[in-house]
Amino acid sequence: MSKAIHTPLYDKHVALGAKMVEFAGFVMPVQYTGIIDEHLTVRENAGIFDLSHMGEFFVSGKGAPAALNKLVTNDVEKLKIGKALYTPICTPEGGIVDDILVYRDADEKYMLVVNASNIKKDYEWIVGRLPKGLEVDDQSLEIALIAVQGPQSEAIMGEVVGQDLGDVRYYQFENVVIDDIPVRLSRTGYTGEDGFEVYVDADRAGEVWDALYDITNGIGGVPVGLGARDTLRLEMKYCLYGNDIDETTTPLEAGIGWTVKFGKDDFIGKAPLARQEDEGLRRRLSGFVMVDPGVPRHGFGIIDVDGKSIGEVTSGSYSPSLGENVGLGYLDVPYDEFDTEILVDIRKKPRLARVVETPFLKLLGGK
Question: Which of 333, 321, 328, 322 is nearest to 353 (CA)?
Fold first, then answer.
């Protein structure tokens, strides 16, 4: 087994007292002051995250837009320079290879941001399916990624870069400098709050982290680990690859069918996805709130009131913003209908839950 990789910011996390764990082949901070504190601070103020475990590929060459359009379900040919989009990559059967971000740098140059656990798999998948002549450059270890998320993120980032960022729209990016260090500044995130992600050369990441951390900390913001990142995204029903989506699930089942553009030319997985849409879904990724005590966890079974198996939990946790135990799971139709009572098998004890509309944060009185 290969040794877990330290991100360029490893020493920063240790100095801040973070609890470090191995995740997707990297040593990452799971928490600093505590998951609940970090979570709520992001919702109310701001948090700074090390996301340098994510992968970055650059795809360039003549015909890159059309070639990528066949590879993904969303429409990259309509993407303007300076903007990004979210899209699955699917198998020929319609399962999800990965969910990624695509940034358009130039007419025929793109940056793809892939999940840490899928870097090797995605690289081989992409190289094996793009036409010869296109270059795919894996710069995952050369690029660090830092995020600042929360209501105060625009003020923090604006102060660091020395400019008003109000004109940088959601899923738009600009090339700016932080302390004379060139960075890519993207208005994106995985928390449900306003925020930015900063891509920087790995050997300058520590300097950028310090600049962002000093201002974030100065207004009461905190560093945030993987634990709170997970609860933040769960409250918004943002899918986590390997839990909520994988090659056995389709974008339509996962509730991200808006990323599948059937009107464009052929793409990998189009035919089975179109057939699934025509025939109707047999299951859907659904949200539920626990009525009985108990925290739902990945892999727990879901049954109906008669004991029939109707699904499985994919993600679950205590929601710090809502004060409720919540979960996601694939439920057979029609058990996915709102207000349906279901039972989650928590350590061989059926616990009552109720299917609800998502995202949880909006439904239950949050933002």
Answer: 328
> Which tokens belong to 81?
């320079």
Tokens of 290: 């626990």
Q: Give the chain's domains with CATH numbers.
A: 5-51+141-235 (3.30.1360.120), 55-138 (3.30.70.1400), 282-363 (2.40.30.110)
The per-residue DSSP string of 77-94 comes to GGPPTTBEEEEEEE-TTS
3-state helix, strand, coil in the chain (%, to 5): 25, 35, 40
Distance (Å) of CA 9 to CA 82, 175, 223: 27, 22, 12
Neighbours of 349 (CB within 10 A): 11
This model's pTM is above 0.90: yes
User: Please, which residues bridge with residue 353 across strands?
Assistant: 290, 342
Q: Which residue has the tokens 């400098």?
A: 177
- Both tokens of 303, joined, read 């049954």
**Contact partners, residue 176, CB within 8 Å, separation at least 6:** 161, 163, 182, 183, 185
Distance between CA atoms of residues 340 and 280, nearest Å = 20
Mention every residue, 6+ apart, whose C-beta is less than 8 A from residue 13.
20, 29, 32, 50, 223
The residue type at 123 = Y
Starting at the earlier edge strand, list the strands of the sheet with 195-201: 173-178, 181-186, 195-201, 143-149, 47-50, 222-224
Neighbour-count burial of 281, counting CB atoms closer than 10 A to its CB (0-12 exposed, 13-18 middle, 19+ buried): middle
pLDDT tens by residue, the chain, 367 residues? 468 999 999 999 999 999 999 999 999 999 999 999 999 999 999 999 999 999 999 999 999 999 999 999 999 999 999 999 999 999 999 999 999 999 999 999 999 999 999 999 999 999 999 999 999 999 999 999 999 999 999 999 999 999 999 999 999 999 999 999 999 999 999 999 999 999 999 999 999 999 999 999 999 999 999 999 999 999 999 999 999 999 999 999 999 999 999 999 999 999 999 999 999 999 999 999 999 999 999 999 999 999 999 999 999 999 999 999 999 999 999 999 999 999 999 999 999 999 999 999 875 444 4
The DSSP symbol for 328 reads: E
